[in-house]
Design goal:
The chain is of the alpha/beta class and 477 residues long. 29% of the residues lie in helices and 18% in strands. Helix 4 packs across helix 5 and helix 10 packs parallel to helix 11.
Length: 477
């Protein structure tokens, strides 16, 4: 069953211990998973952790309505696949705003502040496919918001990957937008400046370390052990500050140095790479939280910055083309249970997890040896791992040291659970059986699927309303 996905960014207001107030701390909740927590669970987690803001990368009406009357501020999102339609006809933007924004703006409704138009649309990997549509879509959405009478409160923006700007090897002061998109980026940032909207950027110190064998490891953290980088009169001891000041210089060169900055994604995965471990994730978050609690910004940008951690829960259906770590960014496991303590407000403690989570039956699909050939085993494993998630079995993963029979069981069970314990998926040509004894081994968790009988609703309201709106608009042309 195909499921829509939503990414939620939550902003925590944290009172710093002897360090003032660190506002604007966030975390992304991505739902590219076989099963996802119910929005009621998410609202409970946000409230239990004193979370006051949430950012969606979609605008599913059924999901959004759960934030009505909660006091949680919401940023709606528009996926990249809608950019072309929104750029093509202003009527499409009007209908999107009506179907996905104004319907929630009533007494006691949803507190909406931003609309994120697309997500990292100018990634180099997209080969310029969104270059002609992103700015017109942004322009149309903001115009439609203004026309609806909400432009003074609700602003449109575009979350960008940090690869939209660069400084080569010359340091932040040489920062500028990429030559291939520079003209469009200048249009966008000038639009943001004129509409009092923020520039949202996603920055990953982990990727700087993981993808560059010569990158100094301590420069990705905030523990003070990194060799400093000198840029004129400014000394940098971490990649985050250097990256953000590269953006500051890029904005200045576009005559938009006063545009506020929000970091839309930043975090550290816990598995899927030699640097993706729980210990390094904790080290990163502890240093990061201590740094931002001081509310000092960067050497060049002294204003308070909102940061959004990535991410809230693991996502077992994300593409692993960049690496297995893509499915392991969560501070929480798939079921909302925390992985490690975090140092909020000078006190290290486990974040509050999801409560009253509903699971399917306590049963697991495991390997049942039946005189099969190695080719049959290999074929069944390939099928299970292609349609399920076997990243935990890869080298260095939490299940990589299992014996061969147990590895087969893990692969079978992951597909079985991801398919909602459909008994037909626990067959594999007679090589599998269902058991009621927990098959987990040590630190290798054999998960049980979440009971998400509500999941058919996700993605339905917004997709149907948006497509219907576009169809009606075409008929009226």
């Amino acid at each position: 069953m195909k499921r829509a996905w939503v990414v939620v960014v939550v902003v925590v207001v944290v009172v710093g211990h002897m360090m003032g107030v660190a506002e604007g701390l966030g975390v992304n909740w991505g739902n590219q998973a076989a099963q996802n927590l119910h929005p009621r669970n998410i609202v409970q987690m946000l409230k239990d952790n004193n979370i006051t803001k949430v950012k969606l990368f979609d605008s599913d009406a059924w999901v959004v309505k759960h934030f009505a009357g909660t006091g949680i501020e919401v940023m709606l999102g528009i996926p990249n696949l809608h950019l072309a339609s929104l750029a093509d006809r202003y009527k499409h933007a009007q209908e999107w705003v009506k179907a996905n924004l104004t319907r929630h703006l009533y007494e006691g409704g949803v507190d909406i502040k931003y609309v994120a138009v697309g997500n990292e649309p100018f990634l180099k990997a997209y080969n310029g496919s969104n270059l002609q549509t992103t700015y017109p879509a942004l322009w149309n959405i903001q115009k439609a918001i203004n026309e609806a009478g909400h432009g003074d409160k609700i602003k449109a923006t575009i979350p960008q990957n940090a690869d939209v700007y660069d400084s080569g090897t010359k340091g932040p002061s040489a920062g500028d937008f990429r030559p291939d998109i520079r003209a469009t980026m200048k249009q966008i940032v000038q639009f943001l400046r004129d509409n009092n909207a923020p520039f949202v950027v996603n920055i990953y110190p982990f990727l700087s370390l993981s993808l560059n064998p010569d990158f100094p490891i301590e420069f990705a953290f905030f523990s003070g052990g990194a060799k400093p980088v000198q840029d004129g009169q400014i000394t940098y001891d971490n990649v985050l500050d250097a990256n953000l000041d590269t953006l500051v210089w890029s904005l200045r060169r576009a005559n938009c140095g006063n545009v506020p900055i929000i970091v839309g994604e930043i975090g550290w995965p816990t598995d899927g790479d030699k640097y993706a471990t729980v210990d390094l994730a904790k080290k990163f978050y502890d240093g990061f939280l201590k740094k931002i609690s001081k509310s000092k910004g960067t050497p060049l940008y002294k204003e308070e910055i909102e940061y959004y951690l990535f991410g809230l829960t693991d996502e077992n259906m994300k593409s692993i083309a960049p690496g297995d770590f893509e499915r392991n960014w969560g501070i929480y496991r798939y079921d909302g249970q925390p992985k490690f303590p975090m140092d909020f407000a000078g006190i290290s403690k486990m974040p509050v997890g999801a409560k009253n989570v509903k699971y399917l039956e306590k049963k697991w699909c495991v390997y049942a040896s039946n005189g099969e050939t190695p080719d049959q085993i290999a074929a069944s494993m390939e099928y299970a791992c292609t349609h399920g998630d076997c990243t935990a079995l890869n080298y260095g993963g939490p299940c990589s040291k299992l014996d061969n029979s147990t590895k087969i069981s893990y692969a079978y069970n992951m597909l079985f659970q991801m398919m909602y314990q459909d008994v037909e998926t626990c067959d594999f040509g007679g090589l599998a059986k269902i058991v009621t004894r927990n098959a987990s081994v040590g630190n290798c968790l054999f998960p049980i699927a979440l009971d998400t009988d509500w999941a058919w609703r996700v993605g339905t309201d917004v997709t149907f309303s948006f497509v219907l709106a576009c169809f009606v608009s075409l008929l009226l042309l």
